[in-house]
Amino acid sequence: MRKSNPSRDLFQILNLVGLTLLALTIFLPFINLIAVSFSSPSSVVNGDVGLWPVHPTLINYQFVFQDKQIWNAYGITIYITVVGTLLSLIMTSTLAYSLSRQEYKYRKAVLMMVMLTMIFSAPLIPTYLVIKNLHMVNTLWALMIPAMISPFNLIVMRTFFMGIPNALIDCSRIDGCGEAGILLRIILPLSAPIMATMALFYGVGFWNSYQSALYYIQSRTLMPLQIILHDMVTHDNLSTSSGDLFESILQNSPFGVQMATILVATVPILALYPFLQRFFMKGMLLGSIKE
């Protein structure tokens, strides 16, 4: 039986109270957002909504789901997230594998250059000029290519690859497998935890991408969801071409529509966490510790 330690017990109690309060500060605003999105416009205007919907209605979601601008932005964001994440995983894994191999004599120099980008980031104007000279302004490639390799993700993945026994790689080479075959047939199948973790990091980053679109995208039809959401929340830039009922709602209480749009934009990326959670901690632990 473990002996009671007053100091340790007090620390555990304070730790539990602190973490509970921290969780509430994160969780309660989200509950309020859900309640507002399902409440009637008059209840929102009067400030009657707390943690539970008042006069529940789906009118705010009806507006969101019939707005073509939102659905177009949704499609753009999904495309950027899926394609950008796949490209990022390909580029990051290939470079991380190269930097993890002892026989690559320039690996330290390349790794040093990668780490410098974590300390000194490129200024905005030179970066914009590079994107412009590559003819990527006002294209979706400008939202994906510059963010394809994250230095932090690269270092974590490289550390994970270095933990794979060299004997497996040497045996594969003896059997006639090339470097690409080793990566595809040996390294990546053993790296499901770190690949899932990096996919989550890159996916969340592309889904929440805002500044890149603000700098490089000019056409309204190419705007991702976060730009449309920003305009809706900060400037009440909502479409009113959907009938008198929706026009009345937007004129009197656009807040409910804004909260519904935020929820619709947030739920898909949150839905990924339960599926990747079992890989997440394992991937981060194994990718951050080198034996």
Structure, described:
The chain contains 16 helices and no strands. It is mainly α and 291 residues long. The chain has a domain at 68-219: MetI-like fold (Orthogonal Bundle). The chain has helices at 6-37, 41-45, 59-66, 68-100, 107-119, 124-133, 141-144, 151-162, 166-174, 179-187, 192-207, 211-216, 225-235, 244-252, 255-270, 272-288. The chain starts with 5 loop residues before the first helix and ends with a helix.
Find the count of extended strands (DSSP E, 2+ residues).
0
Taken as a percent bin, the fraction of beta residues is under 5%
SS-based structural class?
A: mainly alpha
The fourth-level CATH homologous superfamily of the domain at 68-219 is MetI-like
Question: What is the CATH class of the domain at 68-219?
Answer: Mainly Alpha
N-to-C CA distance: 35 Å
Globally, the shape reads globular
The description of the largest β-sheet is: none
**Rg, alpha carbons:** 24 Å
CATH fold-level assignment of the domain at 68-219: MetI-like fold
Question: Overall pLDDT, averaged?
Answer: 79
What's the topology here?
Layout: H1 6-37, H2 41-45, H3 59-66, H4 68-100, H5 107-119, H6 124-133, H7 141-144, H8 151-162, H9 166-174, H10 179-187, H11 192-207, H12 211-216, H13 225-235, H14 244-252, H15 255-270, H16 272-288
Transmembrane segments: 12-35, 76-97, 109-129, 141-161, 182-204, 255-276
Subcellular location: Cell membrane
Family: Belongs to the binding-protein-dependent transport system permease family.
